[in-house]
Amino acid sequence: MIKKGTLTYHLLLALEKSIESGTPLLDFLASPRTFVWTGYRTNLNYSNLYKTVRQLRIKGYLETPREGRKILLKLTNKAKEELILKKLLEGKSWDGKWRIVIFDIPEKHRKVRNSLRSKLRDWQFEQWQKSVWVGKKDVSAEIKKFINYLNISQWVQVFVADKI
């Protein structure tokens, strides 16, 4: 999960505003405030920006196509999903309902099970038991979409409860 306030966070937010067109790297370096308010970061240097871009490329968040001599920065689908999730988790206050995810995924599907656990951590769920997770954020639709994407709906149940 990307930490709020970091250069990585601000760079991804800036790129989100220019999703289709991309942002020239040197334009962002010269004037980051035109893309996103960066708070305390007023002096960016090329070295820090380059390291951040490189890390984001390695993690699969950025593509860096060239247009002549310009290097553009473009978000990948993975980065778009991460930003949507970040906004979703930050933007909502607790509605008083608990989301409970219970699963029993067979051992031969261990990677899928671990992937589900990882996503539940990202969605700020707490583990009660090995296969019982509880969270306060309203991400039920995203959970169901993820479950259908992995084709594990026969092993996973999602509940919404007023009281536990």
Characterise the protein shown here:
The protein has 164 residues and is α+β, with helices and mostly antiparallel strands. The chain has six helices and eight strands. Strands 1, 2, 3 and 4 form a four-stranded antiparallel sheet that branches. Strands 6-7-5-8 form a four-stranded antiparallel sheet, covered by helices on one side. A hairpin with a 2-residue loop joins β3 and β4. This is Transcriptional repressor PaaX-like central Cas2-like domain-containing protein. Pfam families: PaaX_M (PF20803). It comes from Candidatus Curtissbacteria bacterium RIFCSPHIGHO2_02_FULL_40_17. One of its GO terms (biological process) is DNA-templated transcription.
Q: What's the layout of helices and strands?
A:
Blueprint: H1 7-17, E1 23-24, H2 25-30, H3 46-59, E2 62-63, E3 66-67, E4 70-75, H4 77-91, E5 98-103, H5 110-122, E6 126-129, E7 132-135, H6 140-150, E8 156-161
Antiparallel strand pairs: 1-4, 2-4, 3-4, 5-7, 5-8, 6-7
